[in-house]
TrEMBL record:
Organism in which the protein naturally occurs: Dehalobacterium formicoaceticum
Keyword Glycoprotein attached: no
4Fe-4S ferredoxin-type domain segment(s): 1-28, 29-57
Short name of one Pfam family: Fer4_7
Gene3D superfamilies: 3.30.70.20
SUPFAM superfamilies: 4Fe-4S ferredoxins (SSF54862)
Protein's name in the database: Ferredoxin
Role: Ferredoxins are iron-sulfur proteins that transfer electrons in a wide variety of metabolic reactions.
Keyword Flavoprotein listed: no
Required co-factors: [4Fe-4S] cluster
């Protein structure tokens, strides 16, 4: 499984530096996760102030 950032993202950038495999980047309006490279660690979800990262099944 992997994580995906939902539209609740406020583009604060808190998640990107927490990703150990550096697959989170700033998109046009919100941050995005390259799901192919995501290792399902959950660090992004833990630091997000609005709960935007969700596990994809």
């Amino acid at each position: 499984m992997a994580y995906r950032i939902s539209e609740e993202c406020i583009a604060c950038g808190a998640c990107a530096p927490e990703c150990p495999v550096e697959v989170i980047s700033e998109g046009e309006d919100i941050y995005v996760i390259d799901e192919e490279g995501c290792i399902d660690c959950g660090n992004c979800a833990e630091v997000c102030p609005v709960g935007a990262p969700h596990e994809v099944s």
